Amino acid sequence: MSKAKVYFKTFGCRTNLFDTQVMKSNIARFECVEDEAKADIVVVNSCTVTNGADSGVRSYLNKMQHLNKKVYLTGCGVGTRGEEIFKQNLAHGVFAHSFKESIDEFLAKKERFFYPEENPQHIDSTFIAQFANKSRAFLKIQEGCDFACSYCVIPSVRGKARSYPKEKILKQICDLSENGISEVVLTGTNVGSYGVDLEHYKLADLIRDIDALGVIKRLRIGSLEPSQIDSELKDALMLPIIERHLHIALQHTSNTMLTLMNRANRVESDLELFSAFAKEGFCLGSDLILGHPGESEAVWEEALENFKQFPLTHLHPFIYSKRDGTPSSKLKNQVPGNVAKARLHILKDIIAHNNWEFRKKHYVPLSVLCESKVAGEEGFIYNGLDQFFNRFHFQSKQANLEGQWFCFSKYQIEREGNHGNI
């Protein structure tokens, strides 16, 4: 008798991608498939960061219902919309984060069920030692967040910050290495808070211990908060194993807005921090929210002038999207969507110019991890990321180069990326 086929649909962040991998690793009585059309069962790992994210999940659930799939809901959306979705019969089963390792048992249940979060301090025990079809691995090292940013609902659905045991993390990295992974990205809800619940062990210590293993070539750190980067962490981030790119979440470059957002960082100290890393040769990225309530024209002009002073080369800009239940959702002085969009494009243009200028000024040998390829006129066109988190394309007549490292001392710098040949 053939096994029922299960498809996982993941919405949202890299942490959710990791959570999906945890669930896949606990499937025994079913067959995981990568094509939803072939699936009998669909597990939706939801995101609830904005009202729009909720709408996207609901729309997908409706679509799967019309296709007669047996649907289950998990993820962050369980805490905000789970009961509503269950009562409306949009999912056969709904279960919170702490239950995901029981997925094999849940998918076998004939009766409908709703399991809300009962253990907000839960830490997964599942060992993830490989990622299918990936040349790098994302490794979750912590859960939860202790910040209270006014626009964010995530602390209420992910819980307080808690850390995975260092022994487990280090063993996972060794196993990943044995499975051919040579680059690891440390991820979590709030990576910089790693160790907040441990005695005398912080993110800086973990980085040094990973470096001491000597089993991977490159380590990338997920998004950090400026207020979490102390002198000890700065020193650890200078280790050669660390990618020469850091993502530090500013969210805004106006102190007026940072106060409204209930952020811990301030422009003056942020600029000092970014300038220090830039002097060490790092490419620097950030998150930035445009159009948050209160971002008047005067505030925007001030923020823009401040933004131009930052040595930023990468940016994830977001137009503010209302999230019910957050302090920001109650604020007046809303910013029209077209105004926020115009501001976003201004920042994107600045970053594109900054990135191009950085690449021209830092013409150094580039270490590229090859990720994927497409067929070209003469062989294949491969692409990957260099040590500065910049996209690199190269041509080769050789097949099956994915997952390998290449060093390019000669290459062409174009606005959209760097190009080379093998």
UniProtKB/TrEMBL annotation:
Q: Which Pfam families match?
A: Radical_SAM, UPF0004
Q: Which cofactor does it need?
A: [4Fe-4S] cluster
Q: Please list the residue ranges annotated as the MTTase N-terminal domain.
A: 4-112
Which SUPFAM superfamilies does the UniProt record give? Radical SAM enzymes
Which Gene3D superfamilies does the record match to this protein? Methylthiotransferase, N-terminal domain, tm_1862 like domain
Q: Which residues cross the membrane?
A: none
Single GO MF descriptor? metal ion binding
Residues forming the Radical SAM core domain are 131-359
Q: Which UniProt keywords apply?
A: 4Fe-4S, Iron, Iron-sulfur, Metal-binding, S-adenosyl-L-methionine, Transferase
Instruction: Give the matching PANTHER family.
Output: RADICAL SAM PROTEINS, THREONYLCARBAMOYLADENOSINE TRNA METHYLTHIOTRANSFERASE
Stated name of the protein: tRNA (N(6)-L-threonylcarbamoyladenosine(37)-C(2))-methylthiotransferase MtaB
Supply the source organism for this entry. Helicobacter marmotae
